[in-house]
Amino acid sequence: MTDAANAEQIRIMADAVAKAAVMQFAREHPEFNKNRLPPTFKWLAGIGSAIVGAAIIGYFNWLTNTVGSMEVTLARMDERQNSQVTMTDGRYDDMDKRLNRLESLHGFGSPR
Questions:
Q1: b or e along 12-40 (b: 16 or more beta carbons within 10 Å of the residue's beta carbon)?
Q2: 103, exposed or middle or buried, with CB in 10 Å at 0-12, 13-18, 19+?
Q3: Could you tell me the residue range of the domain that residue 17 belongs to?
């Protein structure tokens, strides 16, 4: 016989031995042949995982929308606060000018 024919016969014999070993193992260990969960439980688990996945996606969608709206709110608050500071500074400048004018009238300081 040629080497190719010998290799083919060896492969066929190895396949037969492997099948026989698997069958022997299945006969000796019947606990591996049983379905551990009924199909109903598998369906319920699949539906439950789909619901949990949708809930997680919804939560993160809500979270990103909330953070976006908070960013807009904080920007508006910052603008409002800056305008109040500017207005307050202007009012203090006006008071300072009036105080200097009064002091100059009464001789406490030099006129500006």
A1: eeeeeeeeeeeeeeeeeeeeeeeeeeeee
A2: middle
A3: 1-34
Given 3-state DSSP classes, what are the helix, strand and coil percentages for the chain, each rounded to the nearest 5?
A: 85, 0, 15
CB 69 within 8 A of CB 77: no
Global confidence as pTM: 0.43
Structural domains counted in the chain: 2
Tell me the two tokens of residue 28.
Answer: 């000796």
Give the three-state DSSP class for 91.
helix
Q: How far apart are CA 80 and CA 70, in angstroms?
A: 15
**Tens-place pLDDT, residues 12-45:** 898 889 999 988 888 887 777 666 778 899 899 9
Is 50 inside a domain boundary?
no
